[in-house]
Every structure is written in C-alpha cells, then in structure tokens.
C-alpha cells in the first residue's frame, strides 16, 4: 500500500507537469504556491490540469470500489459496473438530459445519472433472478451485456437523431477533460462519502463469501448488507459516469490485483483498491494526454486496451466456476 501511494504521488507530479504542453518544475511550483493569474501556463495548471487530475483519482477509486462491491455481492469474479450495464444505464439518462434539457445543472444531471444506474442494476438483477435457483454468474454477465447493449443502442439512436453524435462521442468513450472545480465541489463529496461508507462496512463484506444461512446464524442482516452495497455501487457509478462518461474495466481489473497483493480481507482490499484505482486512471489520463499531442485520446480507450485481455484471462482462469 505504501508503494501504491508513492506511485500515485509520482503520477500526480508527472500529470501536473506533462500534457499536450509541458511545463517546467518552477512553473508548477509557482502555480501552486505563488499563483500569477497573468501566466497562461499557470492558469492551465491551476484551473484545468489539477481539477482533472483530482477527478481522475476520485473516479478511479469510485469505479474500482464499485467493482469490488459487485464481485462481493454477486460472488462473481467477473462482475463490474461497466460490464453489468450499470454505467450504460447512467449514460442513457445523461443522453436524455443532454438532448432534452441541455441547460440542466450538474447536480440535476448527476441525479438522473444515479437514477439510470439504479434502473439498469434493477433490470440486470431481475433478469438474473428469473430462475428460482441461485443466481448464476454466467446469467448475470450475459444479462449485464444485454442491458448494456440495449441502453447504448438507444443512447446512440437519440444522439444521432438530435445531432449530438459528435458531441457525445468523446464522452461515451471516457473523456475527463471537462472536469472542473465546480463539478468537483458538487460531486466530489458524494464519492468521498461513498468510499468512506464502503470502508466502514468492509468487515461485513467479508461475510458475503459465506452462505446465506451461515451469515444469518452470526446474527447479521444479509439483506441490509447487500442493499447498502448496491446503493453505494449505484451512487459511485452514477456520479462517475456523469463526470467522465462510460468507462469499463476499472472495477474488473483493480480488485483482483488488490486481492493478489494484500489477500482477501476486505479491510485491506478496499483501501488498496482505492489507491490502485486512482493509480490506474491517473496513469491512463496521463497517457491519453501525451500519446498524440495536441489531440487528446479518451482515457477510457486506454483502459479498455488493458481491460479486454484481462477479461479474457479471467474467463479462462475462472471458467469452471461460471
């Protein structure tokens, strides 16, 4: 965890300094401690680069923890808010907001995003629970992919009809360039509170690996644990999507790496997941800004390049469990 924190610190320093245009160390220092509003470089660092870096940290942590929660609740190693269609539901509601209510405030669009995430999650779990037997991980993944494809297709159609296709393209693939201080002030606290709640209940998350009867025999309310977990997933995913768009695979990759490094105790897994999630998204954003200057690549594409092979690896490794 110390190494992950040190890596995050190094990535933050590199991200502040490098991008479509690079800055000297003195410019970065002055923008932080001796700000000169007349300097264009200092204004870029203070008002554009720093908020997007903080946004990347919060979003990475939120999506990674959402994946850890989904994997614990569903007992499915391939669960992730992006793969299970929750992000697509949030993105669908945001597309409606952009199309019919373009002047809606950030707080209201985020509320719609969270509602969309909740609707999508409800549909996925309803479809997966049609059989009376225990929920199958395979059916859960397939249901999520179907719901994701459904909401994505409707979103694309609405955007095409409303001539918003070009405007939404960058956002749909995960673009963090528009994150501002105003958005962080309104939405950042929701992510932080969600992460704190998840950490406080991390001890109870360990119980989800047991059978329902075993959990009840310990005097724990399994329904409440699962409900609070799903509420946290919906809030963390919905807020993240409202900020940067539909980004998948963060919640799939990071929890497995965290468990490999610190074991399966969620009291250690959750903090490690937060740090590694922030590491991944800050690194992906740095690569997205520097890989093809002055053009910017959506950082969601960078993550997907890593995520797809990891998904295939998990499918092969855990194929007997599905």
UniProtKB/TrEMBL annotation:
Domain of life: Bacteria
Membrane spanning stretches: 53-70, 82-101, 107-127, 139-162, 187-207, 227-257, 269-287, 299-316
GO cellular component annotations of the record: plasma membrane
GO molecular function terms attached to this record: transmembrane transporter activity
Membership in a protein family: Belongs to the binding-protein-dependent transport system permease family. FecCD subfamily.
Predominant location category: membrane
Name of protein: Ferrichrome ABC transporter permease
Entry membrane topology: Multi-pass membrane protein
Keyword annotations from UniProtKB, A to Z: Cell membrane, Membrane, Transmembrane, Transmembrane helix, Transport
Subcellular location per the Swiss-Prot or TrEMBL entry: Cell membrane
GO terms for biological process, alphabetical: siderophore-iron import into cell
Pfam family, one: FecCD
PANTHER family, sorted: FERRIC ENTEROBACTIN TRANSPORT SYSTEM PERMEASE PROTEIN (PTHR30472), IRON(3+)-HYDROXAMATE IMPORT SYSTEM PERMEASE PROTEIN FHUB (PTHR30472:SF58)
């Amino acid at each position: 965890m110390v190494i992950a924190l040190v890596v995050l610190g190094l990535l933050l320093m590199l991200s502040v300094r490098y991008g479509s245009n690079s800055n000297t160390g003195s410019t970065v220092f002055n923008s932080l401690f001796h700000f000169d509003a007349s300097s264009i470089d200092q204004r870029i660092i203070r008002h554009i680069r720093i908020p997007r870096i903080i946004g990347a940290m919060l979003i990475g942590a939120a999506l990674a923890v959402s994946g850890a929660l989904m994997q614990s609740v569903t007992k499915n190693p391939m669960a992730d808010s992006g793969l299970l269609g929750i992000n697509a539901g949030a993105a669908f509601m945001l597309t409606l907001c952009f199309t019919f209510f373009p002047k809606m405030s950030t707080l209201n669009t985020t509320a719609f995003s969270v509602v969309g995430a909740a609707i999508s999650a409800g549909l996925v779990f309803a479809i997966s629970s049609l059989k009376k037997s225990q929920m199958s991980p395979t059916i859960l993944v397939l249901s999520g992919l179907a719901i994701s494809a459904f909401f994505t297709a409707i979103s694309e159609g609405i955007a095409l009809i409303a001539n918003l296709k070009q405007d939404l393209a960058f956002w749909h693939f995960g673009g963090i360039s528009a994150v501002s201080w105003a958005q962080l002030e309104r939405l950042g606290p929701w992510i932080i509170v969600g992460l704190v709640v998840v950490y406080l209940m991390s001890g109870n998350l360990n119980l989800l690996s047991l059978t329902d009867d075993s959990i009840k025999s310990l005097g724990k309310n399994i329904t409440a644990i699962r409900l609070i977990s799903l509420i946290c997933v919906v809030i963390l995913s919905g807020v993240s999507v409202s900020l940067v768009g539909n980004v998948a695979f963060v919640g799939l990759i990071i929890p497995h790496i965290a468990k490999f490094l610190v074991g399966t105790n969620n009291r250690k897994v959750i903090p490690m997941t937060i740090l590694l999630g922030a590491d991944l998204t800050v690194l992906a954003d740095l690569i997205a800004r520097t890989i093809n200057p002055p053009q910017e690549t959506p950082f969601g594409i960078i993550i997907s390049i890593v995520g797809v092979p990891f998904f295939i690896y998990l499918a092969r490794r855990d194929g007997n469990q599905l």
